[in-house]
Amino acid sequence: MKSILILNGPNLNLLGIREPTQYGNQTLADVEDMCRAAGERLGVSVDCLQSNHEGELIDAIHKAREGVLDGSVLGIVFNAGAYTHTSVALHDAIKGTDVPVIEVHISNVHARESFRHHSYISPAAAGIIVGLGVDGYVLGMEALVRRATQA
């Protein structure tokens, strides 16, 4: 069975606690459960990883490349959190591995502080989902499955 990696960056372990008016009341565990249920519906397995450490996120992208090459991984749904706006290294990891990445943001980053308007991830991403709440994760999964069936 093919798989999708749900990758979450810094502070997303605080979902449901941190700024619920901005990010909602669902926890990261709720989001992961929702993604696993969507995976069953879509016929893919789902692996989830959250890290507050940039290097661990880069390592996960590098590892996903192996799965993309052998056909076992469709891609990554990635909420890089604040690293979206600061990490050239994550951009380079995505570009360097050619792993299909759907960038996801729970909130509408373009309606927030100006420093959140720029993404280093976007130019390397296959697609971007912004401001649709945690539903964006499932939409990202659906996009990866669609892309794989059209290839």
From TrEMBL:
Key word Acetylation present: no
Protein name in the entry: 3-dehydroquinate dehydratase
Quaternary assembly: Homododecamer.
Active site per the UniProt annotation: Y23, H105
EC number(s) per entry: 4.2.1.10
GO molecular function, a single term: 3-dehydroquinate dehydratase activity
Lineage start: Bacteria, Pseudomonadati, Pseudomonadota, Gammaproteobacteria, Thiotrichales
Pfam families named among the record's database cross-references: DHquinase_II (PF01220)
Catalytic activity annotation: 3-dehydroquinate = 3-dehydroshikimate + H2O
Pathway(s) this gene product operates in, as recorded in its UniProt entry: Metabolic intermediate biosynthesis; chorismate biosynthesis; chorismate from D-erythrose 4-phosphate and phosphoenolpyruvate: step 3/7
Enzyme class (EC, first level): lyase
Gene: aroQ
Residues the UniProt record annotates as site (Transition state stabilizer): R18
Membrane-spanning residues: none
PANTHER family: CATABOLIC 3-DEHYDROQUINASE (PTHR21272:SF3)
Family to which this protein belongs: Belongs to the type-II 3-dehydroquinase family.
Record keyword Amino-acid biosynthesis present: yes
Binding residue positions for substrate: N79, H85, D92, I106, S107, R116
Gene3D superfamilies: Dehydroquinase, class II
GO biological process, one term: amino acid biosynthetic process
Keywords in alphabetical order: Amino-acid biosynthesis, Aromatic amino acid biosynthesis, Lyase
Function: Catalyzes a trans-dehydration via an enolate intermediate.
